[in-house]
Amino acid sequence: MRPVDLFRLFVLAAIWGGSFLFMRVTVPVLGAVPTAFGRVALAAAGLLVLVSIMRVRWNFNGLFKQTVFLGLINSGIPFLMFAFAAQVLPAGYSAILNATVPLMAIVIGSTFFGERVGGIKLAGVALGLAGVAILTGAGPLALTPVVLAGVGACLIATACYGFAGFLTRRWITQRGGLDSRLVALGSQTGAVFFMGACLVWQLVTTPVAMPVVNANVWLALLALGLVCTSFAYILYFQLLSDIGPMKAMMVTFLIPVFGVLWGWLLLDEKLSLAHAIGGGLVAVAIWLVAKPERPRITA
């Protein structure tokens, strides 16, 4: 992995690490569906402005439908599931569960996409999962039906992410590729259609009064849409194109690291030896998964 790719991986992890904190601010006030809709709507608007300013050529090379459907899998469903989970789970729990994406990718890749996974990468995934569990150090929650539902929602989201990485390679990269900004814009357009339908359904079936929303909630929603989604997905799709889905998904091991860091810097949370141990395991996991495999010698 090139140094520039590793740098982009860390930047992406820093951004997405903050998304769980932002959701914990917005979801209790706005609700899960409005938060997810606001996130993708702001992201699509931000990408539209960015693509226009940068004068990106509007040529999807016949892949617009693929990017729209990709948005359902890579943004719409996962964002909605994590928003539901934010109603009942602490941010650290969601971050830990988010780190199961590489594990999901290994299972999905080997089962559905013929991906060959060696023992070294499996060891890296195991170390990474152990590292984030130690690192976040979240206290145990009683396994009530509500908590289990939140955990299930997170796992649905990570399964979608696992599929999306391989589908991006199959639908986009292997068909000639596409500018990462257009992929991001098309995917968020698809997510807006999906979340818009969910929002209309909720308003029709369970109408609620507009809550009183303070400035911090609106700022958190703006950050979710414009920074954690618009900008972040441009980075993510470029990484998928450059280093492939397996390595790009290693960003999920780094997300809890930054979640802890933001908590220490912004929420005055204490650091401990567990953070050093967990961070070390995460670093080793990244190295193992990113390490090039030796080619097989055939007779």
Write the SSE topology.
Elements: H1 3-30, H2 32-53, H3 64-85, H4 91-98, H5 101-112, H6 119-136, H7 145-171, H8 180-205, H9 215-243, H10 245-248, H11 251-266, H12 273-290
Offer a quick outline of the entry.
The chain is mostly helical. It has 12 helices and no strands.
- The backbone outline, from C-alpha atoms, is globular
Q: Topology as H/E string? A: HHHHHHHHHHHH
Strand content: under 5%
Tell me the number of structural domains: 1
Gap from first CA to last CA: 29 Å
Annotation field: number of helices: 12
| Main β-sheet description | none
Average pLDDT, all residues? 84
The strand count comes to 0
What structural category do the secondary elements indicate? Answer: mainly alpha
> Whole-number radius of gyration?
19 Å
Describe this protein with a few key phrases.
mainly alpha; 299 residues; globular; 77% helix; transmembrane helix; transmembrane; AA-Vitamin_Transporters; EamA_dom; membrane
How would you characterize this protein structure?
The chain has 299 residues and is mainly alpha-helical. It has one domain. The protein contains twelve helices and no strands. Helix 11 (251-266) packs antiparallel against helix 12. It is globular and about 55 Å long. The relative contact order is 0.22. The model has no long low-confidence stretch (mean pLDDT 84). It holds the Pfam family EamA. Residues 9-136, 150-289 form the EamA domain. It is found in: Membrane.
